[in-house]
Structures are given as structure tokens and as C-alpha cells.
């Protein structure tokens, strides 16, 4: 790690990290989007004017502000403005709808809610009104602005909880994960170090900035002083022009992202898809070994895959310096300061990048063992040289395109269908998405045939987000069960329908 990044890495808060980088390289670009470019100095100054506008509206240190915004320069400015004020921010993925958003607003007790208005055909402002959200304001193009001279001093403590990120688990409702500036800085700095990024790189953010990966990526930009291209909506082949125009050197996302780029490359063999690209990196979903080899062979760049979760965004990461065997068959190594313990096959974690717990104290008590290690619910083993190999999951979630989907949430809704007697939802392997959602149902006596379009239409009427909808429907006479509690044996369903 270079001296500048090392010095910045000791910063106690995200705002201090922003200020120091702006002092070091004020004129260097940091955010590139369409024909717009924002420098580090403009990022700092713009965030302060937005912070002043928010302060005039009543946002204070500790005020809870939820925001559901796409990946835009304005979103980063708003988020940094909240960091400057010391507010508690609760990012919400843009494609969540009434069901999830109502829960987030209620559980976080949000005082304000920033929305994009009508975005991609959906009226977020109207949804906010339906849900009775407080302090609703639009923040797509125009942001509240004011005179920074009215601002109180920035927060000096980086260990207070100022982030509530949301993840799905084994229950139907999302879980509010509590992070501090320091925990997110720890994750972002370790990610940059593992990937061996430099000030000469040009990155990209092609995923929702509301993901915990959004702020972690920003930490990388601030520490190493390089820019990133932002994509409000990522789609191929349309996005390729922006990658080429800006000379992107490192890109990433989930397994689905790698597969999409690979498919485009196969449409034009022999001609580099993105000539400047040297590294793909990401995580969030299983990555088959054969996909690693295909990317290296056909895209002509390295692929470093990692393991993270909302509770600990950077657990292990492959590095360009690892061997091809490690890069293809493991999730990389943990950074300094991340302890991994394998207990009864389960991966457990302790370190600065691990969250403080959950909004629900009962979930926090359940998640950490007596030594303070986070129970991940993932199964794995460590190789003799310290690389992590994941072998499965204890918790019943489906990871589709890097998004955690609660099987129980879908099951609960399916059980309300008049034709369904029993339902079980499992994830099936998918080479592009990582996993796809499969609903297995037992029909009620005398019920007529049930089709997948009918099921998805029913679930959409019940408010289920589009990315959680089943992509496959199977009807069985009975679900396999076992044990004294007659639990559904989901592994048998996975084996049968994979």
C-alpha cells in the first residue's frame, strides 16, 4: 500500500477520508457518468453544500435518513453529505417495492426518505406517499443545497453506528445490519489492497450504489485517488461504449456480470471487448472454476473473485498475485485483521470490517458466538496456505445475481395462493445468475393446473419484488420430509430438479 493510501487508511470517518483526498488531489476526477465528470475537490465541496441544504431541512447528527436512489453522481453526493452531518443513513436498493420499503422505513424509524421520483417507469414518490413516509424529498437531479458556513463541526468518531444496510436471511423480512464508518473503511481498504489497484486505474460501478459494495468502492477511490465510471442502468452491449470511452481498467460485480461480458466477447471472437481491461473482480454469488478459466482465456484479463456479505463486506478476496489454481478454486485469503474460524464446518468471522450487529438485539445475540465471532451460516474450509473454500450454506437463502433472496418470504406468499396446499422454494445452480429461484408446490385437491405466469402474477400482486420471482415451477404429489419435526428436505428438491 502506498504512503498516501496508508495515511488515508488511518482516517477515523468517511468524511475525513473525503476531505484528505480532496486536499491531496483536488483536480483529479473521481466520478464519471455520461458526459459529466466530478473531481475530488468538487466531490468534497458539493457534498458540503448538500449537507447544508439538508441541515436547513432539519437533518442533524443521528437523524435517520433512508434513501432509495439509483447509481448516480447525485446519490454519492447525498450519501457523503449525510456522512458530513453524522446522520444515520439507510440505503435501499432501487428495485425494492412497497413490501420491503414499508418494512425498512418502519424498522429504521426513518425521519426522512429520499427518492428519485419516477424512475424506470415506477413512481417512487407515490409509493412513499402510500406508505406514509416522513420527510419525503426527491433527489434524482436536484439536491437540497445551502451555505456550508452554517454547518456544525463534522463527526470525529468513526466508531458510532451511522449505516443501516439491509439483507435477506432465513426469515421473510430483511435484517437491518449496523455498520460504522470504520467498519466500511476497513472493508474498502482491504479490498483495494488485495486487488493491487493504483492511482492509474479507472474503475466502474455497474451495480446499485445502495449495496454495501457502493460505499466500499467509494473508499477505494478515496484511498487510491482513481476515478470510476458510474452506470445508472447496466446493460450490454450498450454499456461497452462507456467502458471503451473512459478506458476502464478494472470492472466487476457478480458472477452474472462476468458471464454477460463473456457472452458479448463470444459474439466477436478475436477482437478485445474492452481493450484496456486488465482485471475483473467481484463476489456475491458462487463462481464456477470453469468460468474463471473462460474469462482469462477469452476476455484476456485476470479474474479475482471474493467472499463478502452485508455483515462483513470484505471477508476474503482473490488477488492478481495468486496462482491460477487459487483464483479458480478458492475465494481468496482474508486480509490482515480478519479472523476466520471454522466451527463444525461453519465459517465464523471476527474483525474490524464485521458489523456491530442488527437493529433487532435478539438477532445480534443469535448471530455472534461466545468469543465474538459472527456466525455466517456458510460452510467452508481453509487450505493449508490460508485460502478459503466455500462448500455450501446453512442458511436458507438463494443468491441470484448477487442478491440475497429469502426462500421463506416467497413460500409464505405462495401458501396464500388458493390452489397451493404446500410450497417450498429452493435455489438451483445457474451458470449466469449463480442460482435461479425454483418454486415446488403441492396443489390442493381438485385444483386445476397451475402455470408459472399465473404464479408470478399472483406474487407480483402481493408486492414481491421482481428480482425475487420464481423462474421455474414444479408440481409434486408431496414434499420430501424427514426428522422428528418433519422438516422439508430441500436438498432432495435441489438434487431432483437441478
Characterise this structure.
The structure is a single chain. This protein is an alpha/beta fold. It folds into 2 domains: 1-395, Rossmann fold; 398-497, GMP Synthetase, Chain A, domain 3 (2-Layer Sandwich). It is 33% helix and 27% strand. It is built from 16 helices and 28 strands. The strands form 9 sheets. It has a 4-stranded mixed β-sheet, sandwiched between helices. The longest helix has 18 residues, at 40-57. The chain is globular and about 70 Å long.
Keywords:
498 residues, alpha/beta, Rossmann fold, GMP Synthetase, Chain A, domain 3, 4-stranded mixed beta sheet, 4-stranded parallel beta sheet, globular, disordered N terminus, AMP-bd_C
Give the gist of this structure.
By secondary structure, the protein is of the alpha/beta class. Helices cover 33% and strands 27% of the residues.
* N-to-C CA distance: 44 Å
Remind me, CATH topology of the largest domain?
Answer: Rossmann fold
Rg value: 22 Å
The domain tally reads 2
What average pLDDT do the residues reach?
Answer: 92
Largest sheet: 4 strands, mixed
Q: What structural class do you assign from the helix and strand content? A: alpha/beta
Helix proportion of residues, in percent? 25-40%
**Which CATH top level class of the largest domain fits?**
Alpha Beta
Beta content comes to: 25-35%
Count of strand segments: 28
List segments where confidence is low: pLDDT < 50 over at least 5 consecutive residues.
Answer: 1-5
Largest sheet: spatial strand order: 2-1-12-11
- Count of alpha/pi helices: 16
Determine the CATH superfamily of the largest domain: ANL, N-terminal domain
Oligomer: single chain
Amino acid at each position: 500500500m502506498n504512503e498516501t493510501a496508508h495515511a488515508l487508511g488511518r482516517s477515523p470517518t468517511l468524511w475525513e477520508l473525503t476531505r484528505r483526498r480532496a486536499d491531496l488531489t483536488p483536480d483529479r476526477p473521481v466520478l464519471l457518468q455520461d458526459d459529466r465528470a466530478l473531481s475530488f475537490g468538487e466531490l468534497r465541496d458539493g457534498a458540503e453544500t448538500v449537507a447544508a441544504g439538508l441541515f436547513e431541512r432539519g437533518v442533524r447528527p443521528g437523524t435517520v435518513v433512508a434513501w432509495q436512489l439509483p447509481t448516480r453522481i447525485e446519490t454519492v453526493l447525498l450519501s457523503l453529505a449525510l456522512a458530513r452531518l453524522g446522520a444515520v443513513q439507510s440505503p435501499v436498493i432501487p428495485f425494492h417495492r412497497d413490501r420491503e420499503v414499508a418494512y425498512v422505513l418502519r424498522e429504521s424509524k426513518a425521519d426522512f426518505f429520499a427518492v428519485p421520483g419516477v424512475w424506470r417507469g415506477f413512481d417512487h414518490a407515490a409509493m412513499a406517499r402510500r406508505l406514509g413516509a416522513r420527510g419525503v424529498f426527491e433527489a434524482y437531479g436536484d439536491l437540497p443545497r445551502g451555505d456550508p458556513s452554517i454547518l456544525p463541526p463534522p463527526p470525529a468518531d468513526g466508531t458510532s453506528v451511522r449505516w443501516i444496510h439491509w439483507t435477506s436471511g432465513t426469515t421473510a423480512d430483511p435484517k437491518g445490519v449496523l455498520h460504522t464508518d470504520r467498519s466500511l473503511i476497513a472493508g474498502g481498504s482491504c479490498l483495494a489492497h488485495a486487488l493491487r489497484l493504483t492511482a492509474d486505474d479507472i474503475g466502474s460501478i455497474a451495480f446499485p450504489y445502495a449495496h454495501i459494495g457502493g460505499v466500499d468502492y467509494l473508499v477505494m477511490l478515496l484511498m487510491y485517488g482513481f476515478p470510476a465510471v458510474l452506470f445508472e442502468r447496466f446493460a450490454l452491449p450498450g454499456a461497452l461504449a462507456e467502458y471503451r470511452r473512459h478506458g476502464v481498467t478494472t470492472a466487476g460485480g457478480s458472477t452474472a456480470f462476468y458471464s454477460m461480458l463473456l457472452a458479448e466477447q463470444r459474439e466477436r471472437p478475436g477482437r478485445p471487448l474492452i481493450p484496456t481491461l486488465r482485471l475483473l473482480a467481484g463476489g456475491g454469488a458462487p463462481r464456477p472454476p470453469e468460468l474463471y478459466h473462460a474469462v482469462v482465456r477469452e476476455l484476456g484479463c485476470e479474474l479475482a473473485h471474493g467472499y463478502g456479505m452485508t455483515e462483513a463486506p470484505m471477508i476474503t478476496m482473490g488477488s492478481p498475485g495468486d496462482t491460477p489454481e487459487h483464483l479458480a478454486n478458492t475465494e481468496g485469503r482474508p486480509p490482515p485483521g480478519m479472523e476466520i474460524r471454522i466451527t463444525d464446518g461453519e465459517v465464523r468471522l471476527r474483525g474490524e470490517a464485521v458489523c456491530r450487529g442488527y437493529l433487532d438485539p435478539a438477532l445480534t445475540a443469535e448471530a455472534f458466538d461466545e468469543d465474538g465471532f459472527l456466525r455466517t451460516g456458510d460452510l467452508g474450509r481453509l487450505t493449508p496456505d490460508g485460502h478459503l473454500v466455500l462448500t455450501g450454506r446453512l442458511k436458507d437463502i438463494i443468491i441470484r445475481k448477487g442478491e440475497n433472496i429469502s426462500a421463506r418470504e416467497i413460500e409464505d406468499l405462495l401458501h396464500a395462493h388458493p390452489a397451493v396446499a404446500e410450497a417450498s422454494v429452493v435455489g438451483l445452480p445457474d451458470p449466469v445468475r449463480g442460482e435461479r429461484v425454483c418454486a415446488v408446490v403441492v396443489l390442493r385437491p381438485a385444483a386445476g393446473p397451475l402455470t408459472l405466469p399465473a404464479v408470478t402474477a399472483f406474487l407480483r400482486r402481493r408486492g414481491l419484488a421482481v428480482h425475487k420471482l420464481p423462474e421455474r415451477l414444479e408440481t409434486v404429489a408431496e414434499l420430501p420430509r424427514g426428522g422428528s419435526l418433519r422438516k422439508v428436505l430441500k436438498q432432495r428438491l435441489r438434487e431432483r430438479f437441478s
